[in-house]
Amino acid sequence: MFSVKTLIVAALLSELVLVVDTSFGEGTSSYNFDLSKASDLTRLYNSPVYQAQRMRRPLGSLSFQIGPISHSGVRVTLHDGSTWLVHKGDNFGTSSQTVVVEARHMSSAWQLVLVVDTSFEFGGSRRSYNLDLTKASDLTMLYNSPVYLAFRMERPLGDHHFYIGPFGHIAGQLSHSGVKVNLADGSEWLVHKGKEFGSGSQTVVVDARHMSPYWEVFKTHDFKGTKTVGDFVKTGGNDYHFLFDNCHQAAARMMNQ
Residue 189's beta-bridge partner residues? Predict the structure, then answer.
């Protein structure tokens, strides 16, 4: 039902056996790649990415970082909870200088710069959805589950960490909206809408644990179990239009049903 973004690096998988990297700790270090079988590497490279974190650390043995005098990479989290660092450097790899190494090798000098939940990209081509429930019976059970509390949520648009103007969340297109719903078992799910978010419907449901910390609550409503998750999806609507049927309008309809 959902499209996926996969981790794709141009290196020949069979040649990626050893990674030499000076950016993990002090001095120069060599790491035998944690996966040496071609089948394991293929599986890793085709794995959907759920969260991406832009990371940065001082260059070499320096204790500070100033603009380009630092080293950057992206730490990605996969469905199984494993984390991997994707980064680039001179002589890091063989056929590609962009390499993938297990994040456990990262030193404490790395600092988080930016968080992007690829499960919640919207309005453009960057998107990744892989529903946590894959069995039809589980999906049916979820869609038939009564909703108790519902929270109208908004977050800044794209990679921005701020709203533009004093009424950015009201201005509409400068932010992204969705509705987080609480079920009887205490689980939380985000129902939201966006261009090419789904296949049969552009209103989709994803586990709220994938949400970044930039989402904010703007309205709360107690539905007391009178509506189901399926009602929220249906009210959100199948089609998306940037001006006439976008994420904000869908979220408003869901809260007002």
Answer: 181, 207
Asked if pLDDT for residue 254 goes beyond 90, the answer is yes
Q: Which two tokens stand for residue 20?
A: 């030499």
Residue pair 50/128 in contact (Cβ under 8 Å)? The answer is: yes
Strand order in the sheet with 49-58: 98-102, 83-88, 70-78, 49-58, 111-117
Query: pTM value?
Result: 0.51
Host H or E run for residue 31: strand 29-32
pLDDT of 123-138, one tens digit each? 333 333 344 565 677 8
* CA-wise closest residue to 59 among 30, 23, 92, 93: 23
Long-range contacts of residues 194-197, Cβ cutoff 8 Å, at least 24 apart: 194/121, 194/122, 194/123, 194/127, 194/240, 194/247, 195/122, 195/123, 195/124, 195/240, 195/242, 196/3, 196/125, 196/127, 196/240, 197/2, 197/122, 197/127, 197/129, 197/240
pLDDT score of 16: 35
